[in-house]
Amino acid sequence: MRREGSPFTGLSTIALKEAADHMSSLRMHLVMLLVLLTAIGAIYGAISQIKQTIGQDPFLFLRLFTTSQAPLPSFVTFLGFLLPLVAIALGFDAINGEYSRRTMSRILAQPIYRDAVLTGKFIGGLLVLAICLVTLWLLMTGLGILLLGLPPSGEEVLRGIAFLIASLAYGGVWLAVALLFSTLFRAPATSALAALTLWLLFTIFWPMIAPLLANLIAPVDPLDPMTTLANASWQSGIARISPNTLYNEMTLALLDPSTRAFGLLFLSQLQGALLGSPLPFSQSALLVWPQLAGLVAAMVVVFTVAYVSFQRQEIRA
Amino acid sequence: MSETVIEARDLTKRYGRTVAVDHLDLAVNKGEVFGVLGPNGSGKTTTILMLLGLTEPTAGSVRVLGFDPLRQPLEVKRRVGYLPDMVGFYDQLTAQENIAYTARLAGMTTTESAAPIKDALARVGLADVADHRVGTYSHGMRQRLGVAEVLVKRAEVAILDEPTNGLDPQATQELLDLIGELSREGMTILLSSHLLGLVQSVCDRVALFRRGRVGLIGEVSDLARQVLGGAYVVEVEADGVDLAQTLAGLEGIGSVTPVRAEVSRVDADRDVRPEIAARVVAAGGALRNMAIRRSGLDEVYVRYFEQAQETADAA
After folding, report:
1. What is residue A201's predicted lDDT score, i.e. its pLDDT?
2. How does residue A56 score in pLDDT terms, banded at 50, 70 and 90?
3. Nearest C-alpha neighbor of B51 from the set B85, B24, B32, B17
4. pLDDT tens column, A160-198
5. Which residues of A touch B (CB under 8 A)?
6. Quick check: B69 contacting A, CB < 8 Å?
């Protein structure tokens, strides 16, 4: 049976309204304040570190993002940790919040399809994430220029933009997860807790779990060197289930141009390589392509599951 | 025969093994106020959701203004205004912003909707507080804001689910007056309720729902005759006689029900007070008091469900 009319009717209205709501909500202000403070702290640490060890690095500007000064971690580490939190704050009560406010049936009684509600909320959230990321990036660039007196080169800008896209995909995965939980659970508190649990699992516990699982699946036999290889590849494979691993690998390749590969590398593969010399942007982009594709795929899959569960839901309130 | 705007045929909705709506037939004519009455859980809201295409029927068909809500939901929703049970709004937005949002969803631009929103808010008496956050609104104000939304949409049909639920008597009366006004302007209105006496004043026709079926349908006075055997209720206080026996055979009398000692309720289809008085006195009884009133929907309702319960128990 075919429905008549476009499923995109009202999509932009909902997306813009969601974005506007997020921008003015206290919740987002608090989360963004946290991100902003950590960003400024991280960059300040990085700048004082760079000033001491000023060298011949052609990509000094990118060091702003990746240099850490104990006890503060680097900006990208912070972002990898906090971006999911921002995305969860954006999405955890997207659908169940409409039910508990009793606005859902009123909105769906307007001439729009359900598709527009869910997709609109997702796009609205992504829009806010993108705005936040661009703002952060510009802020860091501005601080870098002011405090280091050094403008970014063309390639550094290019790498910065690629980094923004990677961050958006990473945030998108977590937004989709939050949206999924908000359709599955009727209470916003439950969906928030579920999303935060998953966040903790992937950011803190997954790096510990991956080696354990790898040792169970492919135990290392000290007499057979190939088992070490199998173990390592299992380990990186399992670690890459976590979006955080994928994101960390991407930022590593994009912001540190000398990165040539992830994981194990054989000596034969390094033949003729000038170690420590930077790769051109196109080669770095090629390196992170699987990771980016993986994140986008995860985002689409999670969103689809949320979509199916939302379409099948009874609108009773 | 006027034009039918809402038509449901053989409508059925099952949730697992429970049947919420059971082979329901319903027709609402253009311009009338149609009341859907029944206790909680009798399938009223489910029926309404199916009329709007928000829930898929298990079987049967629905036509609203000639459109099928399943295949052409946008056409239906463009023309039908819906006020849900316990309507909610975005608390952090003002009344004006809330309505402007739904107007945009309905395809109006902000400039197009500005004037109708102003008019509608004035009409429901919220013009002074249009720029207040809805979070500060009382329940009655929210309900009226919901009606304003239906007005802005210029709906041909308004479906109001329990519009008077939880309102104080004055707010209820204001809302019912507003509904009456809208109906006089030609809007077809379907409203559901379990508060019958109130609804009786605005409804042209009513349907009594019971366990997902329409038990009775028709005008209030017709229903009274069908269920109670009359449109009048006479309360007779007399002692010294057996009232049921004394009045037996009197023309125009439906039933005689003892209410408490010496007081009985007599259902009649006309004013039978003189005859009752004559009979009681002739039988040597002492007539102490007699009062007549038109039977209301409340009585129809209570009696109908009593009878239904008895038949169910007997079966």
Report:
1. 94
2. low
3. B24
4. 999 999 999 999 999 999 999 999 999 999 999 999 999
5. 1-5, 9-10, 13-14, 17, 21, 24-25, 101-103, 105-113, 314-317
6. no
Is residue B113 within 8 A of residue A119, CB to CB? The reply is no
CA distance linking residue A77 with residue A66, whole number of Å: 8
What local confidence, expressed as pLDDT, does residue B251 receive?
Answer: 78
Mean pLDDT on B271-285 = 85
pLDDT, tens digit, 9 for 90 and up, residues B1-49: 468 999 999 999 998 888 888 888 989 999 999 999 888 888 888 999 9
Instruction: Give yes or no for a contact between A281 and A190, defined as CB atoms under 8 angstroms apart.
Output: no
B255 plus B211 within the same structural domain: no
The domain boundary, picked from B218, B253, B287, lies at: B218
* Residue given tokens 């809402």 in the structure block: B6
The two tokens of residue A256 are 């540190």
Tell me, yes or no, if B14 comes closer than 8 A to chain A by beta carbon: no
* Claim to verify: residue B194 and residue B266 sit in the same structural domain: no
- Nearest by CB to A4, which of B74, B106, B146? B74
The rounded Cα A62 to chain-centroid distance in angstroms is 19
Q: Which of B174, B200, B218 is the last residue of a domain?
A: B218
Domain-embedded: residue B223: no
In this structure, the answer to whether residues B15 and B152 fall within a common structural domain is: yes
pLDDT of residue B208: 85
Output the pLDDT for position B1: 46
Looking at the partner chain, which of B71, B84, B90 has a beta carbon nearest the beta carbon of A4?
B71
Contacts of A106 in chain B (CB under 8 A): 82, 84, 87-89, 102, 146, 149
Please, which residues 77-96 of chain B have a Cβ atom closer than 8 Å to chain A?
Answer: 77-78, 80-82, 84-92
> In chain B, which residues have their Cβ closer than 8 Å to the Cβ of A25?
92
pTM of the model: 0.87
Count up the domains in chain A and report the number: 1
Same domain, B12 and B73: yes
The CATH number given to whatever domain includes residue B292 is: 3.30.70.100
pLDDT for the residue numbered A55: 64
Q: What is the DSSP string of B257-304?
A: EEEETTEEEEEESS--HHHHHHHHHHTT-EEEEEEEEE--HHHHHHHH
Closest among A140, A153, A172 to A243, alpha carbons compared = A172
B198–chain A nearest CA distance, Å: 24
Mean pLDDT value across chain B: 86
CB-CB neighbors (< 8 A) of A101 in chain B: 88-91
Q: Which domain holds residue A57?
A: 11-311
Tell me: the pLDDT tens digits for B296-306?
Answer: 667 777 777 77
A36 in a domain, yes or no? yes
